[in-house]
Structure formats: C-alpha cells, structure tokens
Amino acid sequence: MKKLFIFITLIVSAMLFSGCTLTKHLTYFQNIDTVNLAKGEMRPKIKIKPNDELTINVTSITPEAAAPFNFNASSVNTTANMGATGSIYTYIVDKDGMINFPVLGKIHVQGKTRPELEDYIAEQIQPYFTASEKPVVKVRISNFKVTVLGAIGTRVLTVQNERMSIIEAIAQCGDLNIYGKRPNILLIRENDKGEKMQARFNINDANILNSPYYFLEQNDIIYVEPHKMQARSADVNSYTFWAPLTSVVFSLATMVVAITKW
Hints:
Elements: H1 2-26, E1 53-59, H2 63-66, E2 78-83, E3 86-92, E4 98-101, E5 105-108, H3 114-125, E6 136-141, E7 145-150, E8 155-158, H4 166-172, E9 185-190, E10 196-201, E11 221-224, H5 228-231, H6 236-261
Parallel strand pairs: 7-11
Antiparallel strand pairs: 1-3, 1-6, 2-3, 4-5, 7-8, 9-10, 9-11
Helix pairs in contact: 1-6
C-alpha cells in the first residue's frame, strides 16, 4: 500500500513537472522584474540604403515654382505612379547611393535619414524660389517592409511610420505557434554597404527589450525556427498532446524501474 501511494505521488509530480516545463517554454519576458528597461534602445534613426524606394514631393505657396521639382519621368531610375492628388514619383536609390532628382541632377542620399534628406533638398532648391518663399519637401521610404516566416506563418509587413519593433512584427503575424523556438529567433539584416548580418533573440528573456536590434529596419527578415520534434508533428494539437505525454511516460518508466528495485 505504501508503495502504491508513493507511485501515485510520483505520477502526479511528473505530470505537474511536464506542465510547468511547457509553460516555461511558452512564457515571454520571464525575468522582466530583474531587467533594467531604462537601458532600452530609443527609436532608431532609419537611414536610406541602396535599392530603397523614395517618394519625394515638393510644395510651396506658389505651385508653379514647385512644379519642376516634381517631374522627372524621363529619368532612368525613376518610375512614375499617379496618385489621387497628383503625380507622385518613386526614386530608386542606386548602388552608389544616388538618385536623379529634377533640376538638381544626381544627389547622394545614402546614409541620410528622412528628415536630413528633406532639409538637404529644401536647402539645395531654395535658390529657385523667392527669399520669402520656403519650399516644403516631404520624403517617405515607400518600400519599408519586413518579412516574417517560419513557425509563425509567412507575411510581408508594410511599415507606415518607419517604426516597428520585433514584438510588433510578431504580434501582427498572430504570435508564434507552439512549434516556434522562442529562445532562438533569427534576424537577418542588410547594412548600407549591402553586407548581410544576423542577430539572435530570446523572446523568453526580457532583455530582448534592450537589444540594439529590437527596432527593425527596412527589408529585415525574421525567421522563427521550429523545434525538431515539433517539426515532425502534423499539427499544433498533436504536439500539445504528445510532447507532455512523452515526458510523462518517460518519467513513469523511470519511476517503475526505481520502485521495482526498491
């Protein structure tokens, strides 16, 4: 009777342990109470890179004065897209970091932030306006996209305001499924020299909020690797049932051997 009581106690303990293990695997920011979030990265200053697509619009109180800076359809690295409010042109940044801008010709834009480029163009075209007339330049990186794939689904996310964190990207995809390796999320990024680099994230660890790669840049790729055992499973429900059960069966087998020898 005593052995039976111990056996049942061990079974319950094993089941509780397997449940705790699964919960720990799925819980985000587990150590957040011990992490200094004040050290977190500020919103990044997104810099223009080769192959970026820029929409640039110049306005002023005299539309006729601004018109020459909004038309360059014959440029080899410019494509025209007609918007509801007029002509909007997309400038493709070439491999040397240049665009062919109306009147000014070739200008170097690589490495500049959007506000810096706005100020630069406004300064360069000011001589074509009267002293009291200040042109207004608006620049947007129109191809700011982030690709997410793996054990989270596959999506290409469009970033409207040049600000998206890795947590926001995951949330927009509906969160990782139970297959995803939360401690080993991969980020692939291309710098302004065209060189690929990578970073790893552990979403169970709250230090992800302080990572220099927490905020995403244009054309970032996020890959969520599946667990090997989970990858062989046909669906989420199959893993949910069999993973804890396998752990319990293994524990029970160990207990039976121990008890029979007792």
